[in-house]
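Re: that backbone. Tokens:
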């Protein structure tokens, strides 16, 4: 079929396999140019198919030579529709990893479920023995609790009062005012249940119980803080409450892991264009301005640059993990530089629909969004027929993992 982008709101309902493959290959080539790292040998990436999770897996494999198991929940193609971009990303990653002689296997399913935790544990036991780095990078709008069966849905809302600000429809080039009513207590609790640290803790506790954590194991979850401009909808909103819970979970896990000299920590990363960030009001406009400022300064980074720095400066460093006063790793340091934020604040009130291209990098924002789905990639002929059905070489199912049993 001929695959073109079909955008509805803040999502694209199609993805291009060749485009996604090339984007993955670009990230791999970046890591190879940066040079080898000495780091973890056996890595589990929970949420491994897009964004920071995918970039983490690429850096671990092609930077540190790690064996990786990736867990994700993606849709394969059928006769009517393309696969999800994460499916194509994972297929490309495994293809390139295997070509270069690296171990890489993947598990597709609900990472919140006990079944998938059990599958991953058996794969670790059979192929690794133990795991020494666990990346937790899940982004999901809903979660079915593995014990109670209760379904939780997250919301993107302020807390305490109505929030009004300007945002953009990036694809129409329009600046508009948005108003969001505050979340109620149930919505706050549900968002924490989906995006907080409970599932991360369940993963670590389960792997510890199964004796699959190596001495000195590290586990890292990803978060975002951002500028005051976005605090009402992010840091001080429902997402912020979930991220507070994530940090409390990190502190709890850090104490649990001390017996085996392990660490649990949260890395605060830079604002980038992802499927998740595109859904957050205000954030796309902020990112568009931020891109302009940081590109002009020469400090702009995407997911792969951020994750290479995380591994190089922290996860693969011989010294202890470097954190701020609150105990976070800060990879958002270039974004939060005073001169960068001051310039963003200067431009923010000036932006209207008529000067959007002048004061922001909305074109760069849109281009990055399209690239998430394999579009706007140099060298790809989007008018050519392409087979949407792509296999992931080492996708593991229950039957393919010796000894696996459903748990819970």
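Recovered sequence:
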């Amino acid at each position: 079929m001929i695959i073109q982008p079909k955008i509805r709101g803040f999502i694209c309902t199609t993805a291009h396999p060749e485009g996604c493959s090339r984007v993955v290959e670009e990230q791999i080539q970046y890591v190879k140019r940066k040079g080898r790292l000495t780091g973890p040998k056996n890595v589990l990436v929970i949420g491994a198919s897009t964004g920071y999770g995918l970039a983490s897996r690429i850096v671990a494999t092609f930077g540190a030579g790690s064996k990786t198991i990736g867990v994700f929940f993606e849709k394969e193609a059928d006769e009517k529709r393309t696969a999800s971009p994460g499916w194509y990303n994972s297929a490309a990653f495994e293809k390139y990893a295997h070509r270069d002689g690296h171990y890489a296997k993947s598990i597709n399913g609900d990472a919140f479920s006990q079944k998938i935790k059990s599958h991953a544990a058996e794969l670790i036991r059979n192929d690794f023995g133990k795991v020494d780095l666990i990346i937790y990078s899940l982004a999901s709008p809903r979660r079915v609790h593995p014990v109670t069966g209760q379904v939780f849905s997250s919301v993107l809302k302020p807390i305490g009062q109505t929030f009004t600000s300007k945002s953009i429809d990036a694809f129409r080039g329009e600046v508009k005012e948005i108003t969001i009513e505050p979340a109620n207590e149930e919505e706050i609790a549900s968002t924490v249940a989906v995006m907080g640290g409970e599932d991360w803790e369940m993963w670590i506790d389960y792997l510890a119980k199964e004796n699959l954590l190596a001495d000195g194991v590290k586990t890292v979850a990803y978060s975002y803080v951002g500028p005051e401009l976005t605090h009402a909808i992010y840091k001080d909103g429902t997402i912020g409450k979930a991220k507070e819970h994530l940090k409390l979970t990190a502190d709890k896990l850090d104490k649990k892991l001390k017996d085996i000299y392990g660490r649990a920590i949260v890395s605060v990363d830079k604002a980038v264009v992802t499927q998740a960030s595109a859904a957050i009001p205000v954030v796309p406009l902020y990112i568009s301005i931020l891109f302009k400022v940081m590109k002009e300064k020469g400090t702009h980074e995407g997911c792969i640059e951020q994750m290479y720095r995380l591994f190089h400066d922290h996860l693969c460093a011989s010294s202890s993990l470097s954190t701020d006063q609150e105990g976070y790793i800060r990879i958002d340091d270039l974004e939060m530089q005073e001169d960068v934020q001051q310039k963003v604040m200067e431009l923010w009130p000036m932006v209207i629909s008529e000067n959007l291209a002048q004061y922001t990098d909305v074109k760069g924002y849109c281009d990055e969004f399209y690239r998430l789905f394999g579009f706007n990639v140099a060298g790809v002929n989007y008018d050519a027929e392409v087979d949407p059905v792509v296999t992931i070489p080492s996708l593991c199912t229950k039957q393919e993992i010796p000894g696996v049993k459903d748990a819970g």
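The first strand starts at residue 7 and ends at 8. Residues 398-408 have pLDDT under 50 and may be disordered.
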